[in-house]
Amino acid sequence: MTYIAKPKLHHPSLPRNKIGFTRRDYEGTISTLCAGCGHDSISAAIVQACFELSIEPHRVAKLSGIGCSSKTPTYFLGGSHGFNTVHGRMPSVLTGAYLANRDLIYLGVSGDGDSASIGLGQFAHIMRRGVNMTYIVMNNGVYGLTKGQFSATADKGSKAKKGTVNVDSGIDLASMAILMGASFVARSFSGDKGQLVPLIKAAISHPGPAILDVISPCVAFNNHKGSTRSYDYVREHNATLNRLDVIAGAEPMTADYAPGTSVTIEQPNGERLELHKVAEDYETSSKAAALAYIQAREEAGMVTTGLLYYDPARRDLHGRLNTVSSPLNRLDETALCPGPVALGTINDSLR
Ligand SMILES: Cc1ncc(C[n+]2csc(CCOP(=O)(O)OP(=O)(O)O)c2C)c(N)n1
Ligand code: SF4
Ligand SMILES: [Mg+2]
Q: Which ligand has an atom closest to residue 67 CA?
C-alpha cells in the first residue's frame, strides 16, 4: 500500500486534550486519495472526534475491508492497532478480535461496495450480534477503487458518469441496520463536519453496535449531474433530522419553523443550509417510526441525516456467550489450557 509519512514535528502551542495529546497525535500518514474525496473529510472527522474524546490511540483497533474507503485507516490514528482484511470480511475479523479482547475500542471502516455488495451477509450479522463497535460506511454509491461501477447502495435512477442509468433498487444500510438490531444508527454527510463529529463521538461512546452511514461523494466517478451521491445533490436533498452541535466562531443563527417542516437559510459564508425539523411525534427509540420516517423522506427525494435510531438497552455479545472478562492475551497457560479432565467434562456435556 502506498503511503507518505507526515513529519512528527508540530507547533508547541497546539491545543492539547485532557490526556495531553494534540490533534496531530491522532493523524496517520498523508492521504493518497483523490483531492476532494469525501473519505478524507470523514478521516478528519474521526481524528477530531478521537481528539475531543481524549482517547488513548493505543486503545483503538481500526479494521477495514478493501476499497478507497478501507484504505483510510492508514490516514488516521497512526498509533492504533490496524487490520486491513479481505474485501467484505471486516465484520467477522472485528467480531473475532472483540471476542479475544473486549478492552479495546473497535472502529470498523468500510465502503458501500465492501458492506452492501460483497459484504452484505457479514454486515447483517455483525449488526445483530451485539458487538460493541463503531462501524463507519463511507458511502459513495460506487466502487471507487475499481473505477466507478454502481454499488448496491446506488439509488435506482441514478446516472453513471458515462450515462448508464441504474435500474436496480438501492440498499439503505441505515434502515437495514435498524432492522438487524444495531442499537445506534445514524446517517451523515462528509461535507457536514458540524453534524458528523458529534455523531462519531456519540457512536464511539455508545456501548453496543453503532453504525454511521456517511454519504461521501467520489469526485472521480460519482460527482456529476444525474448522480444522487454528488456534493450538489446531497446538499440540495439533505433532510437534517437533528443536529447535536453548534458552529463556533459565528453569530448565532435562528430559524423558527414548525416541527416536521423544512426551511432553507442563508449562512454568513453564502452557503444555503436546508434544515428539516424532526416531527414532534418522532420517536428515536422506535424502530417502526424510524423506518417509516426514512422511507417517507426517501419517497420525497430527500436523504435523512442525523441520529435515526437509538436503543439504550445494553446487549453485549460477551454477556450472551458468557466469556471470560479478561482479554485472552492476559490469561496464563493453565487458564487457556485447563487439561484433559476439564476437556473430558466439556465433551461429556455435549454427548
Ligand atoms: C474478493 C474481491 N472481489 C473484488 C475485489 C475488487 N474490488 C476492490 S475494491 C472493490 C470495491 C470497493 O468499493 P467500496 O467498498 O464502495 O469502496 P470505495 O472504493 O468506493 O471507497 C472491489 C470490487 C477484491 N479486491 N476482492
Ligand atoms: S476514486 Fe473516488 S473514492 Fe477513490 S479516492 Fe478517488 S474520489 Fe475517493
Ligand atoms: Mg464506494
A: 1
Q: Structural domains in the chain?
A: 23-333 (3.40.50.970)
Please answer whether residues 277 and 243 qualify as being in contact, where contact means their C-beta atoms are separated by less than 8 angstroms. Answer: no
Coil/strand/helix, residue 109: strand
Q: How far apart are CA 80 and CA 6, in angstroms?
A: 16
Task: Tell me which residues have their CB closer than 6 angstroms to ligand 2.
Answer: 33-34, 37, 39, 68, 140, 144-145, 218-221
Q: Does ligand 1 come within 6 angstroms of the Cβ of 68? A: yes
Confirm or reject: Cβ of 67 under 6 Å from ligand 1. Answer: yes
Tens of pLDDT along 134-160? 999 999 999 999 999 999 999 999 999
Q: Cβ(131) to ligand 1 under 6 A?
A: no
Instruction: For residue 220, report the distance from its CA to the centre of ligand 2, in Å.
Output: 6
Q: Which ligand is nearest to the CA of 40?
A: 2
Model pLDDT for residues 204-214, shown as the tens digit of each residue: 999 999 999 99
Which residue's CA lies nearest to atom 3 of ligand 1?
A: 87
State in Å, rounded, how far the first CA of the chain is from the last one: 49
For helices 173-180 and 120-128, the axis angle rounded to 10 degrees is: 40
Query: What region does 148 belong to: left with phi over 0, alpha with psi -120 to 50, or beta?
Result: left
Q: What one-character-per-residue DSSP string does 73-113 give?
A: GGGB-TTSEEEE-STT-HHHHHHHHHHH-TTSEEEEEEEHI
Give Rg (Cα) of the chain. Answer: 21
d(CA 131, CA 109): 15
The pTM for the full model equals 0.88
3-class secondary structure, 344: helix
Which residues, 6 or more positions from 139, have their beta carbon under 8 angstroms from its beta carbon?
Answer: 111, 112, 153, 173, 213, 214, 215, 216, 229
Average pLDDT score over residue span 125-134: 96
147 lines ligand 1 (CB under 6 A): no
Q: Find out whether the beta carbon of 209 lies less than 6 Å from any atom of ligand 1.
A: no
